[in-house]
Specification:
Layout (H helix, E strand, L loop, with lengths): L7 H11 L17 H11 L2 E7 L6 E4 L2 H8 L13 H42 L12 H15 L5 E2 L2 H4 L8 H13 L3 E3 L8 E3 L6 E4 L5 E3 L3 H17 L2 H35 L9 H13 L4 H21 L5 H22 L18 H15 L1 H6 L8 E5 L6 E5 L53 H4 L11 E2 L2
Helix pairs in contact: 1-2, 5-7, 5-8, 5-13, 8-13, 9-10, 9-11, 9-13, 10-12, 11-12
Bound molecules: zinc ion (ZN) (2 copies).
Length: 493
């Protein structure tokens, strides 16, 4: 079809351009008509072709094309394709419009859904912001989680206020060296009302519940907030610490043993991370093999149990990594993975020999790149506090308690006397715990239990201004209150 207003020359070129032979192929090449670019521009500017043998896939009308390449694409070499999968220009326009509308509707639906979820998250976070007191008694909470709480308070006091980063943001070692366990602890602290979800949590950390009434969250991805003001949470952390230090009977001993194990796990994860870091950063080796991690943890535990400090363990690890890398460099056929595995064996040999011969090992500083489990400092403080309370030398030197470390305390108000574990409030120099330390006394059951041991809360102060406390949860924690945001259910990503 040639446009009616086309000039004579354009009509002539268009006819030559579109002419086909009997078999449907082009009558001549474009270059035989004139300069290719010019011919194409003139022909397509003033004419188009209708492929009479090629019906539209939708309306069956012949398809119109604007140039030869489209004509061949739709009609094939002989312009006679019977059922090409193409639409005529009209149908194409309709289809395109329908597609645009569909896309727009989908986009609107997506935005509406996003707004709905954001409203749900907003409502949930509003509930979270309102939390100011623990929801229930703390006696039921895993003592390790409570120890983590004390460490979290210590961490927060050091800088970022009441905001705690998500586990994902904290990094692979988490708070205690085991992010899965950290998640469980954080959830139990959340259930107890000691932690709330922070407003800073990313939207992606939430998703609607199946009933569409609320939102759930991914434990690893939400940020947390310490509930209560600085003074209140410090007091709560002190209460928790005091209970951990002095709680009598098998429950108290078990709690202290659990804390000792948790701290040992964190210390071990710390050294493993250091060894992996040296292997990767200084020797281009992969991390120590997963299959040998339990063995590696056992080797490191043994070093700690024999009194070596973290700095000294780093020294062992540094040497083990370097020896393994040297062995790789000097031995044909030995690669980086073998060297990483050999560093485990090397560490075992080094620690074993040092224990056997009583070597004095120098302590290495923590390098800048190394990230220890974030709660490790707090856990160490707790462990040291506990050690001190039960330390024979400290008890002997303390003038305020008897030979077993108990002192008589008077309950204010009633005047009832009770024997209670002394925390030796005056600083008494303790022997250096490194190498010369007596076995860790944490977890040793209290030697005896006074029949008069208090079992109820008391706010009355005893001597040295210490708060007298029993096995019961502290008063602030026992006030009944509704369960924390019922709409929140932990869900694994
Ligand atoms: Zn059509
Ligand atoms: Zn004392």
């Amino acid at each position: 079809m040639i446009r009616h207003d086309a000039p004579e020359e354009a009509r002539r070129i268009s006819l030559l351009y579109w002419e086909v032979k009997e078999n449907g192929t082009w009558a001549r090449t474009v270059s035989s008509i004139g300069v290719t670019g010019d011919v194409g521009a003139v022909a397509t500017g003033h004419s188009h072709a209708v492929l009479l043998d090629c019906p539209c896939a939708n309306c069956s009308e012949p398809i119109a094309v604007t140039n030869r390449s489209w004509a061949n694409k739709i009609g094939g070499k002989h312009l006679d394709a019977e059922a090409p999968p193409y639409l005529c220009p009209d149908c194409t326009a309709v289809q395109r419009q329908e597609e645009d509308e569909r896309r727009q509707r989908a986009e609107e639906a997506r935005r509406a859904e996003q707004e709905r979820v954001e409203r749900l998250i907003g409502a949930a976070l509003k509930d979270e912001d309102a939390k100011s007191e623990p929801a229930g008694p703390l006696a039921e909470v895993d003592p390790r989680a409570l120890a983590l709480y004390a460490a979290l308070v210590q961490h927060a006091t050091g800088g970022p206020g009441n905001l705690l980063p998500s586990l994902t943001a904290v990094g692979p070692l988490g708070w205690t060296g085991d992010t899965e366990q950290d998640g469980e602890f954080l959830l139990s602290l959340y259930a107890a009302g000691l932690l709330a979800l922070a407003r800073e949590s990313p939207t992606e950390a939430f998703l609607p519940t199946e009933d569409d009434e609320g939102v759930t969250f991914y434990v690893a991805d939400v940020a947390w907030r310490l509930v209560g003001g600085p003074a209140a949470r410090r007091a709560r952390a002190e209460e928790i610490t005091y209970t951990l230090l002095t709680r009598p009977g098998p429950d108290g001993a078990a709690a202290r043993e659990a804390l000792r194990t948790l701290t040992a796990q964190a210390e071990t994860a710390d050294v493993i991370a250091y060894l992996n870091g040296v292997l990767g950063r200084q020797h281009s080796c992969p991390e120590t093999p997963e299959a040998r991690r339990d063995e590696l943890a056992g080797i490191i535990r043994k070093g700690f149990e024999h009194g070596y400090s973290t700095g000294q363990m780093f020294c062992f690890a540094w040497g083990a990594a370097r020896s393994a890398a040297t062995w790789r460099d000097e031995t044909p056929g030995v690669g980086a993975p073998e060297a990483a595995s050999a560093s485990v064996t090397g560490l075992k040999t080094r620690i074993g020999k040092a224990i056997e011969c009583g070597y004095d090992i120098s302590a290495y500083d923590v390098p800048r790149w190394h990230r220890a489990p974030l709660a490790l400092d707090g856990l160490r403080t707790l462990r040291e506090d506990i050690r001190r309370v039960y330390d024979r030398a400290v008890i002997d030197a303390c003038t305020r308690c008897d030979q077993q470390g108990f002192k008589e305390t008077v309950r204010a108000g009633t005047g009832t006397k009770a024997l209670w574990r002394c925390t030796h409030p005056v600083e008494i120099p303790a022997p250096d715990p490194v190498r010369t330390a007596t076995p860790d006394p944490v977890g040793i059951p209290t030697p005896r239990q006074s029949p008069e041991v208090k079992t109820e809360n008391a706010t009355g102060t005893a001597t040295e201004g210490e708060v007298l406390r029993g096995d019961e949860p502290p008063p602030t924690a026992s006030a009944p209150s509704p369960s924390p945001s019922a709409q929140f259910v932990a869900r694994e990503p």
